[in-house]
Design goal:
single chain, Ferritin
Length: 142
Amino acid sequence: MINDTEMLNYILQSAEMGCDGVKNVRKGKISSAMNSVLTNQLARYGKIYSTAGGMLEKLGEELHHVSPVAKKMARLSANRDLKRDPSGSHIAEMMIKGNTMGVSKMAQHLRSYDRTDPNITLLAKKMLDVEQEHINELRGFL
């Protein structure tokens, strides 16, 4: 079973990777419509990140960020994909894949979470909803 601290750190890291992913693809040439969607997604991830971080601090727990190596690998992979195909539809596809992986892993973690704190459960479900909302928004760009 996953305890409160582990779940909050997982949510924090998921939101952190979401922020980094959005920032990486926004460096490319994207339409103003896609930029608007990605800007909103970045704000949603940022809010969840801040909430999870605040909850961890309130518990007196340490925040465990995504490792710099994992971030660099993700950035290199995104840059390689963008060089191969910088189109808006490809960016949407890349982001949808990342969000789909996020939904899958968050659902797994939520099933393993001992659910002792309803606020943490609610935040994890919010993260799931946000990831699904992002997928739905990006489908229009395929």
